[in-house]
Amino acid sequence: MNLQAETLRRIDEVIPHYPVKRSAALPLLHFVQEDQGFISSEAVEWIAAKLELQPINIQELVTFYPMFRQKPAGKRHIKVCRTLSCAIMGGYRTCAEFQKQFSTGLGGVSPGGEVTVEFVECLASCGTAPVVMIDDELHEKVDAAKARDLCDRIKAGTATAVPSR
Amino acid sequence: MAAPEQRRIIFRHIDEPGYTNDLACYQRNGGYEVLRKAVLRKPEELIDEVKKSGLRGRGGAGFPCGVKWSLLDRKSGKPIYLVVNADESEPGTFKDRYIIYKDPHQLIEGIMITCFANKVERTYIYIRGEFPDGATILEKAIAEARAANLVGPNILGSGYGCEIYVHRGAGAYICGEETGLIESLEGKRPYPRIKPPYFPAVLGLYQCPTIVNNVETLCHVKHIADMGGDAYAKIGTPGNTGTRILCVSGHVQRPGYYEFEVGRVTLGQLLNEVCGGPLPGRTFKAVIPGGSSAKILKFGERFKGKRKVGAEMVDYDWGLEDVPMDFDSLGMIGTMGGSGGVIVMDDSVSMVEALGNINAFYSHESCGQCTPCREGSLWMKKITGRMVHGEARPEDGALLKSVADQIAGRTICAFGEACAWPTQSFIAKFGEEFKGYAEAKKKPRGDGVPELV
To answer: Which of A79, A111, A77 is nearest to A95 (CA)?
Structure first.
């Protein structure tokens, strides 16, 4: 595992927040995914060893929690809310527009590696539906036109690049 | 009757120009003065204030907060934990987001008062993974508060200390269920625990006594400690005290968050006046009043019965628009106030497709621990999905109901009810639409009618 010094620092800082090491499993998975882009089997074993657990104790979290990926995503990760309040305000059209603009299906990586487009469940911003998260940044009232605009900005490299935390 | 004015207690400063989420701004507005006074009082007094206030939990179940605290096992000798439920995962709900993002110190002050009252020395804020900036904002606010001796050891020279840590979830709805949340915080899959024996108040986090409270609930605690339980109980209506934030989404002119005294605003006032009514050329068709698990209501419905007003039983005869937005009234008409998420659908929406959307959510989010829920939620999704994308049969409504009827009451946690209630209520209220869906979907789809499944 080749983790950045900052990631290692955050890992060592967070573990003592808990009286039981195992509790640090989700924070470590977040930190490692932010560092590496996804959770590899090597990462599963590394985290397990760090927390004195069996690899299955970590693997079962990776397969359960929707936010953890076992494969790399595109450079930008577009998450469109699929749930009711967004859907009745046109979320499916928004999602289709992102897919069309990058000629990609749901969940995969677009041909140029630029993006991954995904449907996710409720993002808790139902009053400004439809909403989309691009990496860590929330975009509100994203109709098809606004989706096209966001795509143009991503393609031109001018969309706010939000570094992972 | 005209809608009452909003009464913003929790959201007093939200949207206020120039109000920022840092400690200096919070303190300029009187922040942490309540905590300062609270630590000079006896903890038991503060618990009594919360009991007197009648505060009911704002996360979904509406359980009295003071009662929850009084169930805490204080004799076990084990540490007592507070876990803040900031998972805000019930679809239609988005109030805690604004507290966390715009006024995090209000939450921290509420947490510290709650911890002092209950002799808690460690708190975890379990925040949904989808609020990455929210987690950063909270961490920064906690650091500011710690530097000002408002969090951490020996706060304000009182001899009392408490640490707060932020813990991020990772996209699972079931983590909003308090025992699932605790499992998740222990680093496991969030499988809800069986109650009894695992009541958090007795056997919670690390098998220690634990309070799990929603973000908004803890903010109310601050204001109760400030004004006193008796004064707080005069806000709202008897049994439904205080204010509550209603989150309105879907087909209204002005969706958003609105804070009212509980029970003082009716559903009709909220949707027609406060939210500006339906979109141009449309009419209201249905509303889900308390997050997507709450049973759906149909415009045109009437509700009759007897209800308690003071000591007397009086008759009520309400149109849907007349129903007060409080826990008890919504409960009486067969649904719930839940988390305060009001989802409005107009006549452009097919109820079959809306249910298909909801079923896909619950199927995705079932933790899989209990067979009736795991399989039932999946089959309800498959049946509604087939109706929309494949063949729809007149008997599908009855089939859906039969699946739903076999889930509720047969699961470890309330997710079983949460996933069954939408199907049961959609079929009960809109059964004809399910019977006629095969014909209805042959007609060309109108412009602007959104796809939902």
So the answer is: A79
